[in-house]
Design goal:
It is a single chain. Helix content is about 45%, strand content about 20%. By secondary structure, it is of the alpha+beta class. It has a 6-stranded antiparallel beta sheet, with helices on both faces. The chain is globular and about 65 Å long. The two termini are about 25 Å apart.
Amino acid sequence: MALDFALVSFPGVNSAAEAFAAARGRMASGPAWTREVGFVEHHENGHLVLRGTFAGHYVDVDEGLHVSAHGTTEGVALGAVIGTVLAGPLGLAVGTVTGGLIGSQFGTPSEVDPEPEPLAERLRAAVPAPGSAIVLIADATDVDEMIAAVDGNRTQVMRSTLTPEEAAAVQASLSTSPVASAGPSPRGEAAVEASEAEPA
């Protein structure tokens, strides 16, 4: 089955989530697309926040929270030395804290959620900063419904049908992210877990 990629962008980093909430509030029941969307925030400093479902995978990445444990260690050591030389014991304390903060932000991130980098870079280019977007990778019917539901103060809609190669590239980009939940089941969690454990 062919998948469509749709991105509806808005000015402001909170606007996409607000548009989704407003659209969801107008519906008596939640159509499938409401459980298949992801949200992008592109902040003025260039950081992205990705949350939600992207092609069946759950993503929760905030680049503003990426820190470097190695950079922190190096920054603490260097800050302590410089602080001690320039200002004695008080400089040691100030230099240690300042060096650690600087090192954690400018070193290579080492403790982060897995980021689908190829997809993230495309989204960074597609969503003007400061701005946000609703992203849906699904069949054409779901995409049609989503675009109609959030139609309003949007600034741009990008839509295309993914080739098999593009769909495979998206899946490869998301391979380190967990598979998204299908949502609550009226049968209950225990029944779902039991059915998943049954041999095919």
